[in-house]
């Protein structure tokens, strides 16, 4: 930790958050908010004089509330940067008449009540997302009595109680009577591996953490009896089995079965654990002076902010999704962004360090080349067709298009800023925007080829590259079977799926058309997916007016992690397809025949007056 | 922007049907797909390989492009999210613009999800190749922009992973900005007493 | 407070009420079959 503070190449911004990110691989521009600390980090020597005179006490977050701190404090003794921080909400010092004591005693004069948040801008080529995890909150699991019984604690609280730097100087005591417990029980998988309550996944490190805790107790207090209640002990890593055996040899008793209920003795405050021992097949009652809940990991509760800033994706468990589970395990789908540590999945320190090394190597590999090729999938304006209506300017999530609607000069695209979603091209009422590598003729050629023969037996599905198409890939990798009637057309974003593509497909005899894209929170193009939904909603109305059942146009949001959902949707659309009659298809072909006439395709028409930008909250 | 089509405006499409061992060929009749592809518009040559992504497979693509003067390539194999970069490089090596490649996903989107439905899967595979050829015929060469990379990195989060990543990159000579939300770095690791498997101190 | 409006699922054809704010595009899911093909029934606001 101290190395980071000292390293000449590391610029540490503690108590800071990422406010905004623009740009693309190799050229990210980041706005960092340095939160007001009210203490000058450079000047503060962490002498502690301010803390001594501060009259305010508050729960110490680092000690998980097991001790107190002052309103001006150092998070923990080894903190880096080694400087104090003032919690202005708790401080009286805003008003010097009320207090101001710390200001008086500070020799270095490094306290400033008027400190303000500061925004700084940094330019970087790569971004490593290492935001870590939160721990599971066991209050919902009533049977363990975490909220009712003081001697039921979490494994994080236990860490502080056994830590020589902690509130008890490392003496393991019960919170009720400050006596050393004679029996300690650990309960495993609290919040993990439970579909219904908590999380379905294994949190990876809790088994070994408990094994370690048992050895620590036995080291300090050989006479303490320890029982561990578990489903499975997963001691899979190097040296892990050895450690597990050592804890058994030291006298730890492992009982297979998770207690269904805990009761407290109202006098002794000791606990009774009722458990079905699944090895013996018996229902047992075990006594313990203290119970430690081995709580699992959950994704950080504030994950969605960095997710949106960097257009990242998360898997179903809520942790960040890697570009490929085997071959790109630390790369994000967003080029130039990498993951390390528990941000990607729950893991222990060794794995976090390993992954951090891998992520650093991947970032290094990119940066050392000095330059990078960016995919040539961008939009281009066809000036002759552009009527300077300005719709594309509103559509573009990246503000890459500008257009002087008053001067009526054709719009222009900044290619470097264009990410290539194609929403502008789909929304342009004049067909004046062409998407490189995903042009109208290219996509129309696919539609026509697919529906040339036996159209009535097939479902046409548009799928976005990042989520739905990848969800289809995952269905494949997992061998989730579904009917073979669908044909996918890949676009970079569902926002590219022009209304005329859908109508063309129906005109060619498609019984069902599916448009699929990312969930709103996963959209790889900030909020381009909003345009998809708006367009489909309008299309439903239009189809209905033309006497075409709107349900023949289906809309689904399928993430890259939802292979199962992809297969379910494919089965659902096939069922819908079977309900579409030949007469219906013929009728549709007749009604829509005019969309196939080339002259009408590019026919300029007045844009609807009610075009508004989609809700901007996703972009904010 | 548009590719000069073999100098005389004619399209010459080469189709490579990949068996992927038995991954595709186990469900899809690749011979039948290959024969079907021969009759598609502008297709001049069709190959049927065991592993198109292998070194010999890639060499064959290069040779085929040169010998047949191909100006569009369709590879019917796995997901483009898997091997598009591989095959784009093969095109480039043969002097063809990488954007003149189109892939048909016969594995993740066909053979792996329609196991035991050989006839239907083969029909679907033919359609997918037909669609890919149709699209390939209107593909255009694209020039990729080359942008410089800022030789600096940002690490978001100063827990054990962030600290390690920041130090590795800093040691490699890059300027690193380490952004930590809390007043101190350390994260959850700093709260832990001893750590397994070495039973030593966390800080 | 968010208003509610009547919606219809275009997969399973069930009808239900969901929060709705005019002009705001939201991701919607059918409570019955989990489809996202959820269409607002116009002129039927509650």
Keywords:
heterotrimer, B: 203 residues, alpha/beta, four-stranded parallel sheet, two-stranded parallel sheet, 21% strand, elongated, disordered N terminus, C: 46 residues, mainly beta, Rubrerythrin, domain 2, globular
Concise structural overview:
The complex is a heterotrimer of chains A (620), B (203) and C (46). By secondary structure, chain A is α/β, with parallel strands linked by helices.
Detailed description of the structure:
The complex is a heterotrimer of chains A (620), B (203) and C (46). By secondary structure, chain A is α/β, with parallel strands linked by helices. Chain A has 5 domains: 2-124, no CATH class; 134-298, FAD/NAD(P)-binding domain, CATH 3.50.50.60; 300-373, no CATH class; 374-439, Alpha-Beta Plaits; 441-603, no CATH class. Chain A has 17 helices and 29 strands. In chain A, strand 12, helix 5 and strand 13 (225-230) form a beta-alpha-beta unit. Residues 600-620 of chain A have low confidence and may be disordered. Chain B is an alpha/beta fold and 203 residues long. In chain B, 36% of the residues lie in helices and 21% in strands. In chain B, helix 1 packs parallel to helix 5 and helix 2 packs across helix 3. Residues 1-7 of chain B have low confidence and may be disordered. Chain C contains no helices and 3 strands. The interface between A and B is large, with 133 and 90 residues. Strand 21 (371-374) of chain A pairs antiparallel with strand 5 of chain B, so a sheet runs across the interface.
Shape of chain B: elongated
Per the CATH scheme, the topology name of chain C is Rubrerythrin, domain 2
Work out the radius of gyration of chain C. 10 Å
Helix content of chain C: under 10%
Outline the low-pLDDT stretches of chain B.
Answer: 1-7
Oligomer: heterotrimer
Mean pLDDT of chain B, nearest integer? 93
Tell me the name of the CATH class of chain C: Mainly Beta
Q: How many DSSP E strands of chain B?
A: 9
| Amount of beta strand of chain C | 25-35%
What is the total domain count of chain C?
Answer: 1
* Strand-pairing-aware structural class of chain B: alpha/beta
Strand order of the largest sheet of chain C: 2-1-3
SSE series of chain C: EEE
């Amino acid at each position: 930790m101290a190395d980071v503070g000292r390293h000449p190449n590391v610029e540490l911004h503690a108590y800071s958050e990422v406010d905004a990110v623009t740009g693309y691989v190799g050229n990210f521009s980041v706005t960092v908010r340095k939160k007001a600390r009210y203490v000058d980090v450079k000047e503060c020597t962490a002498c502690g004089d301010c803390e001594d005179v501060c009259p305010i006490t508050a729960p110490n977050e680092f000690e998980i509330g097991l001790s107190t701190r002052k309103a001006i404090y150092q998070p923990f003794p080894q903190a880096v940067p080694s400087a104090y921080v003032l919690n202005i909400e708790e401080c009286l010092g805003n008003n010097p008449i009320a207090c101001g004591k710390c200001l008086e005693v500070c020799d270095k004069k490094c306290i400033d009540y008027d400190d303000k948040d500061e925004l700084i801008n940094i330019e970087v080529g790569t971004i490593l997302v290492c935001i870590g995890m939160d721990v599971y909150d066991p209050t919902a699991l009533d049977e363990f009595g975490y909220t009712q019984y003081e001697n039921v604690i979490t494994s994080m609280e236990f860490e502080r109680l056994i830590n020589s730097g902690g509130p008890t100087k490392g003496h393991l005591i019960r919170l009720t009577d400050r006596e050393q417990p004679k029996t300690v029980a650990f309960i495993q998988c609290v919040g993990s591996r439970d579909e219904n309550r908590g999380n379905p996944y294994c949190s990876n490190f809790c088994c070994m953490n408990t094994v370690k805790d048992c050895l620590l107790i036995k080291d300090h207090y050989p006479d303490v009896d320890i029982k561990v209640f578990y489903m499975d002990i997963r001691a899979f890593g190097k040296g892990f089995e050895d450690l597990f055996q050592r804890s058994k040899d030291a006298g730890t008793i492992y009982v297979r079965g998770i207690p269904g209920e805990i009761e407290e003795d109202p006098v002794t405050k000791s606990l009774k654990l009722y458990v079905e021992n699944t090895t013996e097949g018996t229902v047992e009652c075990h006594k313990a002076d203290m119970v430690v809940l081995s709580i699992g990991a959950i994704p950080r509760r504030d994950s969605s902010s960095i997710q949106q800033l960097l257009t990242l994706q998360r898997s179903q468990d809520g942790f960040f999704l890697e570009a490929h589970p085997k071959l790109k395990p630390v790369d994000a789908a967003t080029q130039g962004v990498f993951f390390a540590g528990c941000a990607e999945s729950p893991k222990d320190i060794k794995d976090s360090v390993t992954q951090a090394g891998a992520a650093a190597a991947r970032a290094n590999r990119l940066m050392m080349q000095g330059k990078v090729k960016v995919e040539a999938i961008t939009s281009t304006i066809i000036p002759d067709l552009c009527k300077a209506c300005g719709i594309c300017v509103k559509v573009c999530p990246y503000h890459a298009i500008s257009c002087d609607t008053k001067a009526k000069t054709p719009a222009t695209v900044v290619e470097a800023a264009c990410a290539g979603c194609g929403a502008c091209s789909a929304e342009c009422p004049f067909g004046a925007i062409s998407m490189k590598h995903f042009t109208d003729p290219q996509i129309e050629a696919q539609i026509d080829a697919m529906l040339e023969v036996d159209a009535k037996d097939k479902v046409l599905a548009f799928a976005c590259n990042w989520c739905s198409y990848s969800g289809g890939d995952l269905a494949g990798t997992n061998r989730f079977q579904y009917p073979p009637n669908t044909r996918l057309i890949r676009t970079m974003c569902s926002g590219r799926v022009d209304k005329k593509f859908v109508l063309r497909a129906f005109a060619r005899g498609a019984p069902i058309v599916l448009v699929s894209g990312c969930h709103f929170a996963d959209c790889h193009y900030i909020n381009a997916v909003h345009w998809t939904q708006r367009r489909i909603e309008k299309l439903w109305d239009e189809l209905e007016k033309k006497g075409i059942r709107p349900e023949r146009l289906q809309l689904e949001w399928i993430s890259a992690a939802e292979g199962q959902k992809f297969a379910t949707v494919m089965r659902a659309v096939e069922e819908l397809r079977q309900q579409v009659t030949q007469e219906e298809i013929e009728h549709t072909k007749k009604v829509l025949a005019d969309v196939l006439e080339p002259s009408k395709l590019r026919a300029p028409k007045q844009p609807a007056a009610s075009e508004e930008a989609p809700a901007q909250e996703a972009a904010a | 922007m548009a590719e000069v089509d073999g100098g005389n405006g004619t399209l010459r499409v080469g189709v490579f049907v990949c068996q992927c061992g038995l991954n595709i060929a186990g469900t899809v009749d690749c011979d039948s797909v290959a024969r079907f592809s021969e009759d598609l518009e502008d297709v001049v040559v069709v190959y049927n390989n065991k592993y198109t992504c292998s070194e010999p497979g890639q060499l064959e693509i290069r040779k085929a492009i040169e010998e047949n003067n191909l100006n569009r390539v369709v590879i019917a194999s796995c997901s483009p999210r898997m091997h598009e970069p591989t095959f784009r490089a093969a095109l480039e090596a043969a002097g063809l613009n990488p954007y003149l490649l189109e892939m048909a996903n016969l594995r993740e989107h066909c053979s792996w999800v329609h196991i035991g439905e050989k006839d239907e899967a083969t029909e679907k595979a033919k359609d997918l190749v037909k669609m890919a050829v149709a699209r390939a015929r209107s593909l255009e060469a694209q020039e990729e922009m080359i942008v410089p990379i800022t030789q600096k990195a940002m690490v978001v989060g100063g827990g054990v992973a962030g600290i390690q990543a920041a130090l590795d990159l800093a040691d490699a000579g890059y300027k690193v900005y380490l952004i930590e939300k809390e007043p101190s770095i350390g994260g959850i690791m700093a709260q832990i007493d001893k750590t397994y498997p070495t039973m030593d101190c966390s800080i | 407070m968010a208003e509610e409006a009547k919606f219809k699922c275009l997969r399973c054809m069930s009808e239900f009420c969901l929060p709705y704010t005019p002009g705001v595009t939201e991701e919607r899911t059918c409570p019955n079959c989990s489809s996202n093909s959820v269409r607002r029934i116009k002129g039927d606001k509650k």
